[in-house]
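[recover] target loaded
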């Protein structure tokens, strides 16, 4: 009878999620582990025991009834580098790893284009190729990644017989501004090219003065408008032939940015303000205290997920809308990249990589918006970086190309995939391949993601 009562009581506790902890000799509520992994048919192990396999209709493995403690989790598949992590299970909670990606153990790179000086990504499908001076190749061309077709911009290439190309401004994925310097006079010319036009004709913008910068592009009721900073003022003009230049803002401006119809402007005195593109509303001051500008020639305003960032040299500031102030969040920033889902920033410092959350995230684990996540510090400088998906990124350091996750719980899974002297790296979200410019050659990887 006593045995029956004890067994019945144990069954009730078991059905309610309790387990007996032999180590501590007491009943504990259990938790679970859920692993979502790609590609399919990946095997998930808990403490070296097979827990399950991801399937086409279920790309996760869920294990419940686990005592609260740490578990060694490993995900593997033949031909792929394994993923492993130590995860802690708590009572009544499910510990998740929602974004595990396995990468091929051997990744091949093929040379696609040669004799290149630089590349400029336009979108996930096209890049601008800048060739080294040669009699055989056109200097400037557009390369379609999917079709593997290269189309020269004849109008610009013709001008390069008597001009040097000093810069290419990507106004948006379909509109480019080429900045040329005349070999004889030394004067700067500005040439606009619309990539949607069949002729790819270059329109010379004579109305833009010498030394102008900070270009922006917009469309309004079918009209194409270009904005630029000249002599510390902001000008705008329709790109139609009968357009007239107008002063958009006469205030002395150090930098500006145009995002979703709104202008964000930093005055020479360091005052940050906002106005709409058509100036239907009065200018609104965003920060009460002016910013002490340190690098007047290296200022950039960016808007990510509706949040205003200001880069002064290598110092990165974020506008705190509630406190109406610019707060420094990083020093020594070389580059910023927004994640594919637009919820995180990859912050590339001299020797460090950080992730800044723009929104609340739930993958690879839950984290609040505004969190700074330290990933790595290296002895050698980091040259380039880019996102692969929303939780993995690629970077180059010490002539090595590496992939890393952003999940910093216990160990960080990092994979060295190649050894190249790289001047630029870029991942195409369209065809899931990595593009590397190394020693004048554009190298393209195998497909890195299965989804």
């Amino acid at each position: 009878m006593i045995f029956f009562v004890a067994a019945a009581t144990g069954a009730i506790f078991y059905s309610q999620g309790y387990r007996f902890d032999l180590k501590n000799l007491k009943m504990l509520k259990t938790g679970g582990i859920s692993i979502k992994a790609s590609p399919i048919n990946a095997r998930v192990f808990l403490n070296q025991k097979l827990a399950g396999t991801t399937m086409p209709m279920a790309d996760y493995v869920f294990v419940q009834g686990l005592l609260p403690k740490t578990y060694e989790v490993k995900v593997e598949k033949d031909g792929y580098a394994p993923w492993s992590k130590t995860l802690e299970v708590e009572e009544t909670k499910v510990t998740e790893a929602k974004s595990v990606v396995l990468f091929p153990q051997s990744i091949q790179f093929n040379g696609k284009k040669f004799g290149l000086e630089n590349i400029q990504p336009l979108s996930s499908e096209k890049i601008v190729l800048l060739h080294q001076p040669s009699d055989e190749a056109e200097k400037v061309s557009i390369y379609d990644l999917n079709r593997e077709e290269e189309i020269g911009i004849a109008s610009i290439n013709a001008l390069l017989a008597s001009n040097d190309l000093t810069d290419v401004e990507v106004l948006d994925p379909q509109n480019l501004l080429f900045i040329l310097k005349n070999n004889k006079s030394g004067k700067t010319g500005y040439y606009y090219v619309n990539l949607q036009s069949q002729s790819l004709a270059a329109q010379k913008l004579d109305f833009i003065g010498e030394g102008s910068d900070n270009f922006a592009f917009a469309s309004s009721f079918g009209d194409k408008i270009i904005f630029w900073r000249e002599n510390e003022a902001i000008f705008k003009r329709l790109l139609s032939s009968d357009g007239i230049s107008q002063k958009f803002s006469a205030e002395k401006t150090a930098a500006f940015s145009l995002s979703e119809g709104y202008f964000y402007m930093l005055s020479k005195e360091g005052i940050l303000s906002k106005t709409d593109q058509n100036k239907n509303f009065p200018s609104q001051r965003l920060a009460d205290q002016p910013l002490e500008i340190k690098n007047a020639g290296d200022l950039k305003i960016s808007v990510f997920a509706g949040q205003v960032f200001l880069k002064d040299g290598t110092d990165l500031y974020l506008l705190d809308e509630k406190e109406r102030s610019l707060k420094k969040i990083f020093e020594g920033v070389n580059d910023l990249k927004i994640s594919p889902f637009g919820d995180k920033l990859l912050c590339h410092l001299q020797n460090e990589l950080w992730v800044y959350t723009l929104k609340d995230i739930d993958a690879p684990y839950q984290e609040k918006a505004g969190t700074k996540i330290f990933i790595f510090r290296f002895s050698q400088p980091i040259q380039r970086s880019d996102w692969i998906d929303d939780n993995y990124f690629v970077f180059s350091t010490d002539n090595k190309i590496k992939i890393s996750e952003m999940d910093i719980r216990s160990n960080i899974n990092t994979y060295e995939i190649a050894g190249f002297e790289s001047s630029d790296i870029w991942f195409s979200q369209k065809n899931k391949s990595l593009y590397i410019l190394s020693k004048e050659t554009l190298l393209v990887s195998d497909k890195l993601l299965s989804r």
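[recover] notes: The CA atoms of residues 264 and 307 lie 11 Å apart.
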